[in-house]
Amino acid sequence: MQPESFDYIIVGAGSAGCVLAARLSEDPFVRVALLEAGGADKSVLIHCPLGMAALAQTGQFNWKFDTVAQAGLNGRRGYQPRGKVLGGSSSINAMIYIRGQREDYDQWAAEGNPGWSFDEVLPYFLRAEDNARGANALHGVGGPLHVMDLTSPNPLGARFVEAGRQAGYAVNPDFNGEGQEGVGPYQVTHKNGERFSAAKAYLTPKLSRPNLQVFTGAQVCRLLLEQRRAVGVEFVQQGETRQLRATREVLLCAGALQSPQILLLSGIGPKADLQALGIAPLHDLPGVGRNLQDHLDVVLVLDAPQLKDSIGISPGAALKTLKAIFEWRKHRTGMLTSNAAEAGGFIKSSDSEDRPDLQLHFVVAKLVNHARTLVLGHGVSCHLCVLRPLSRGSVRLASKDPHAAPLIDPNFLAEPDDLQRTVRGFRLMREILQQPALASLGSREAPRSAAAQSDQEIAQFIRHYGDTIYHPVGSCRMGSGALDVVDARLKVHGIQGLRVVDASIMPRIVSGNTHAPTIMIAEKAADMIKADA
């Protein structure tokens, strides 16, 4: 029996895959297959914004990867959650809408990637966006992705913004506006009190299209190649190995950890590494899996037993949560519409910086260990990351078994500059949290960080407790150099009919959260794919 044939096969229904499925299937004469290893996004924990806290506890809809031991983190293995469901990580993330800085994209273009400057990618951000604030030169309306302010913001978010103002920072109501610097509220990908993932924005409204077929529970094991051309995929679904054929292109959208894994399993990557694992090297491409970048995050917790506005665990909070469940089910308003990380900031680690190099996420709860550890009582927490770290890591194969997790090495803090900036940023974060707007609430820094006062002690605290804030990128880097994987049209070097379209193509990590930039990458890729057809 011959494998079923499609014009385009998209591997991965995350932020990028959902965009490509919707855009490419606009042509009724084009047949599109979308493969996702996870299942449907039907859980109330996905659609209720604060349900992500329960998702962290259960580990549902999540690949739950770990890193290899990190020398920069005292030999600890870090956590790498990735969405395993329609919508990918956009179905389990904190829903913050951030593009990054103009300079990020201008640098992409300056390093040999024509078409990727900020002015050239801005139209794709605008095309994707449906901003409840309305349209202007930097914001769009009418696009698939709804962006808005929180409907029921926690008053503690405003307290953080005021604390930032008291510490000397400008209040910035729009981090995606003319400038990023300052403190302010985050806009989120919500609509009608619910999470608005890439699946809900792009895919769900198009599922009735007869030319679009979605395969869930379908884990891709390898790409099918014929004479250096991608002609299909092999995948496992319900224990059965199946194949699909692509007459035009295979589009790899599995993310920064699994797109390189699938390329390597298919014999595309560093020749010596493949041979060592018993994989026939079909195309020697040394950069596959190299250049991995991520934002290392460190959290400072404030204890405040009497701070009942915070989301916490106490007898009173249990009653409040029951009321909130009723309110959300009836009106889609209230506490459960929070994304927890309601406010934040972009600041400079020193006066010598020409633009912000640090990001803050203020969380209206005591959040530790990625919310996997329940913490009793009330309080708040603040996260800090260096926006443009210099450290570079890798994604490699553990074995040729496609079901084995990849070896993920972000190589956190390998470059001394990353640690030095984090230490300076930690002091600035602490200074903000000590301002009257928060200190007047009776908050006290938790003992384990309060003990860290010298630079050396702060550095050791960072090494002992730091971990990802979920922004892996760069492992299939765009460019024309020896270690680049795709060109400026996202075509894999040396292989016809194959593109990578996801955060793995970023030459350098953007200055902020990565969901919105990944949507933009896929919107731009859809136009390039259509033009090349």
Write the layout of secondary structure elements.
Elements: E1 4-11, H1 15-24, E2 32-36, H2 44-47, H3 52-58, E3 65-70, E4 76-80, H4 102-110, H5 118-128, E5 129-131, E6 145-147, H6 155-166, E7 182-185, E8 190-191, E9 194-195, H7 198-203, E10 212-216, E11 218-225, E12 230-237, E13 240-252, H8 255-265, E14 268-269, H9 271-276, E15 283-284, E16 290-292, E17 296-303, H10 315-331, E18 341-347, E19 358-363, E20 379-386, E21 393-396, E22 407-409, H11 416-433, H12 436-439, E23 444-445, H13 447-450, H14 455-465, E24 467-468, E25 498-500, H15 515-532
Provide keyphrases for this structure.
2 domains, 15 helices, alpha/beta, Cholesterol Oxidase, domain 2, 533 residues, seven-stranded antiparallel sheet, seven-stranded mixed sheet
CATH superfamily of the largest domain: FAD/NAD(P)-binding domain
Rg measurement, Å: 22 Å
Strand content: 15-25%
Enumerate the spans where pLDDT stays under 50 for 5 or more consecutive residues.
Answer: none
* Count of DSSP strands: 25
Largest sheet at a glance?
A: 7 strands, mixed
Class derived from helix and strand content: alpha/beta
Structural domain count: 2
Mean pLDDT level: 97
CATH top-level class of the largest domain: Alpha Beta
Summarize the structure in words.
This protein is an alpha/beta fold. It has two domains: 1-69 and 82-103 and 195-291 and 472-533, FAD/NAD(P)-binding domain (3-Layer(bba) Sandwich), CATH 3.50.50; 150-186 and 296-386 and 413-465, Cholesterol Oxidase, domain 2, CATH 3.30.410.40. The chain has 15 helices and 25 strands. The protein has helices spanning 15-24, 44-47, 52-58, 102-110, 118-128, 155-166, 198-203, 255-265, 271-276, 315-331, 416-433, 436-439, 447-450, 455-465, 515-532, and strands spanning 4-11, 32-36, 65-70, 76-80, 129-131, 145-147, 182-185, 190-191, 194-195, 212-216, 218-225, 230-237, 240-252, 268-269, 283-284, 290-292, 296-303, 341-347, 358-363, 379-386, 393-396, 407-409, 444-445, 467-468, 498-500. Helix 1 packs parallel to helix 15 (515-532), helix 5 crosses helix 15 (515-532) and helix 11 (416-433) crosses helix 14 (455-465). The protein starts with a strand and ends with a helix. 54% of the residues are buried. The model has no long low-confidence stretch (mean pLDDT 97).
